[in-house]
Structures are given as C-alpha cells and as structure tokens.
C-alpha cells in the first residue's frame, strides 16, 4: 500500500490567473467546512483585478488559518461559473485528470487525518504554518484512476441521498408552518377571537425548567444543548419537549424532541401543559426569542422572559386537531434526520478508509 503514497506536489500545479479585466465579480471566501462561502471582506475601493480566478476543478487554499483553527480551509470549485478569491490564497489544479481525479483529492482534503497532519506540520515547520511547500510534500494515497472514480461515485451517492433528504425535511417544515398559519393565523382577529379562544401569555401554555450539567457517556439518549444534540447518554431528564437555547449568541434556538432526552445546562426544556408539543413548538417559532435576551457580553434568555410573552391561546380542540396532523409531519422529519445522520457516518467511514 505504501508504494501507492506519492508526494502531492507531483500531481498538482499552482494556478495564478488574475481578474485583470474585472470579468468576474463573485468574490467568495473559505469556510471551516471546506466550502466556498460569501466573503465578509469590505471590498469598497478594493482593486479586484488583483484577485485570483478559480475556474471549475480549481482549488483555493488559505495557508494562514491552519495553525489558528487546526483545520485546512480548502475548497474546490465544482460549478461551471468562475469565482474570485483573495490574492493571499493559493490556487491550484490537478495536472492530469486521468491520473488524479480532483473530486477524489477533495475527498482526501476532507479527511480528519489530513487536518491532523497539517496541524502537526504547522507546529513543526521552520517558517510556521502549512504553506504551499508543505502541501506539495504531503503524501497522498493515489490508487489507479478507476478506483478513484469508484470511491468518488460511492461518496457522491451518499451525498445525493443526504441532499434529497434535506430537501424533503425543508418541505416538511414548510408544510408544518403553512398548517400552523392556516389554523391559527390566517383570518384571526385578536379583537374578535373565535369562541373558546383568548389572549394570554406563554406561561398559560407551557411549563419550563432549566437543564442540568452532564458529561456524555455510553447510551442512545440524545443530550441537547443550546445548539442541538451535543452527545448521548443512558439517562434522561425530559420527555416530549421543546428545547430552547438559554445562553450565548444562539440563545432562543429551538429543537423539538418526541421521546426521552437529556437537556443540559446551556438550554431550557419546555413542556406543553396540554401535552401538545407540536403546537407549542410552532408558536415559539413565531416569537423572536433571541431578540428578547438580556445582556450584551453573554446574551441570556430567562424563564420569566419566555413565560411573559403575550400570545393567542386557541381552544383545546383546535390545538388537539393541529397536533394530530403535525406530529405525523415531524415523525417523518425525524426519521429522515436519523437517516442523514447514518449516511454522514458512512461518509466519514469511507473517508477514513481511503488511506488503507
């Protein structure tokens, strides 16, 4: 196997095409997820003719961030539309597409082993950082091109399935939102509410408690923090709840969970007094909870802030009818999310196996 490891520099070459005629205006940066993202740079008065053009199958690589974030910000343009990137980035391409498939190479860059290696080299390099020379010296497993394309096809099959599932998940969420508006918003006049409806506060609809600190351990019960699932355990402190992020920049984030879970001390758990958490989740989505937070250095959302939010309280029959429909939607959504989690694990295993 080791004989198939080759210095990457034998298979790639630097590309240095400048945007001299200003023909390309789509300026992008690099994310830690190894994708292009909208640039956050202020380009007012900046000479974009010095920026580098990235065509299809061309890579962009930021050597300055590796030692700071312990990852290699690198991405490949897989579209037919050229983009421009910072002149501080290295841009390069595969010399021969029949020897090294750029999609295979991008998969190699996505491996955690690659980031660990680059991080190690950044600390060890005399000049500091993981630069073009270090990238070229990196040993990469390069099997025959047929094998490379087979690996790429397997990975893309998983990626396509994840993408399809994600689109269905978005459609399911949009359906739930539309159903909520139809049953509780459209045509509803606060001054002339339907029989059995009234004005009140969220405290009339929910019970709320802060989560508790816990260290992830073996188990299948998800642990929720303020940004979603952060691990798993064998115990639970909540069941059928809406989780609300309590502290930090993302306080007010919402997660719906049917069944047992554990909510940690970065979040709060809210239970529906009527037992219908689907309605509770959708009504909380209509409120800008993040905008209600207190504090500037460390935003904080308290129980009293949530309890005192004014809202319309529909009749119990309407809430029950809504929940019976929306639970089917969210059950399907949850199944697709679980499938995507498994597919992502398979992708990780495929990346890990590339060097064997």
Strand and helix map with partners:
Blueprint: E1 5-7, E2 12-14, E3 28-30, E4 36-38, E5 52-54, E6 59-61, H1 66-69, E7 74-76, E8 83-85, E9 90-94, H2 102-109, H3 112-124, H4 132-137, E10 139-141, H5 145-184, E11 198-201, E12 206-210, E13 221-225, E14 228-233, E15 238-245, E16 254-263, E17 267-272, H6 277-285, H7 303-307, E18 310-313, H8 316-353
Parallel strand pairs: 13-16
Antiparallel strand pairs: 1-10, 2-9, 3-4, 5-8, 6-7, 6-9, 11-18, 12-17, 13-14, 15-16, 15-17
Protein model, in words:
With 356 residues, the chain is α+β, with helices and mostly antiparallel strands. It has 2 domains: 2-142, DNA methylase specificity domains (Adenine-n6-DNA-methyltransferase TaqI, Chain A, domain 2); 198-313, Adenine-n6-DNA-methyltransferase TaqI, Chain A, domain 2 (Alpha-Beta Complex). The protein has 8 helices and 18 strands. It has a 6-stranded mixed β-sheet with strand order 12-17-15-16-13-14, covered by helices on one side. A 4-stranded antiparallel β-sheet has the order 2-9-6-7, with helices on one face. Helix 5 (145-184) runs antiparallel to helix 8.
């Amino acid at each position: 196997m080791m004989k198939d490891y080759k210095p990457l520099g034998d298979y790639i070459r630097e590309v240095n095409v400048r945007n001299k005629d200003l023909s390309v205006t789509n300026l992008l940066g690099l994310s830690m997820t190894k994708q292009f993202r909208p640039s956050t740079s202020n380009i007012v008065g900046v000479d974009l003719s010095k920026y580098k053009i990235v065509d299809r199958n061309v890579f962009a690589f930021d050597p300055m961030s590796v030692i700071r974030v312990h990852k290699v910000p690198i991405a490949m343009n897989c579209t037919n539309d050229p983009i421009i990137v910072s002149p501080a980035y290295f841009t390069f391409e595969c010399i021969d597409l029949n020897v090294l498939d750029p999609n295979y190479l991008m998969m190699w860059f996505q491996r955690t082993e690659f980031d660990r290696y680059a991080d190690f080299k950044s600390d060890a390099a005399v000049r500091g950082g993981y630069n073009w020379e270090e990238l070229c010296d990196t040993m990469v497993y390069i099997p025959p091109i047929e094998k490379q394309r087979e690996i790429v096809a397997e990975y893309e099959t998983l990626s396509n399935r994840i993408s399809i599932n994600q689109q269905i998940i978005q459609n399911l969420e949009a359906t739930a939102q539309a159903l909520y508006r139809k049953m509780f918003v459209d045509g509803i006049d606060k001054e002339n509410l339907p029989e059995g409806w009234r004005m009140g506060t969220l405290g009339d609809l929910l019970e709320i408690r802060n989560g508790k600190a816990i260290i992830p351990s073996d188990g299948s019960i998800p642990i929720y923090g303020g940004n979603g699932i952060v691990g798993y355990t064998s115990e639970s402190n909540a069941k059928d709840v809406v989780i609300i992020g309590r502290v930090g920049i993302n306080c007010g984030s919402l997660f719906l969970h049917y069944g047992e879970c554990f909510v940690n001390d970065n979040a709060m758990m809210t239970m529906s007094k009527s037992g219908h958490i689907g309605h509770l989740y959708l009504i909380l989505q209509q409120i800008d909870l993040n905008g209600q937070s207190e504090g500037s250095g460390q935003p904080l959302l308290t129980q009293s802030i949530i309890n005192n939010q004014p809202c319309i309280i529909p009749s119990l029959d309407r809430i029950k009818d809504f929940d019976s429909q929306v639970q089917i939607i969210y059950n399907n959504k949850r199944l697709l999310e679980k499938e995507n989690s498994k597919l992502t694990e398979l992708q990780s295993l495929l990346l890990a196996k590339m060097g064997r």
